[in-house]
Amino acid sequence: MRYTVGRHEVQGKRYRQWMGWLKSHHIDPSSVLEVEIDDEADTITFQQYLHDYDGHKYLNSDGNVAMSEPQTIPLMVSPPRI
Question: In the chain, what percentage of residues exceed pLDDT 70?
Fold first, then answer.
């Protein structure tokens, strides 16, 4: 099954569990808004914000949209229930 989870969907104790789960996959929680989990392919796909050396997000040429790139990594640990 494939499903998408956004940060706004997780609150309270589950939010802390979710952030820990992201970190266990070496995903910086502040760099993503949502992740797509495909437990049949055992992958996690997400848009990761691009940062400069100082940690600031790269913006588009208009300066109003943060730049990102898609990432797909192996699903190593099942996500916490939402």
Answer: 93
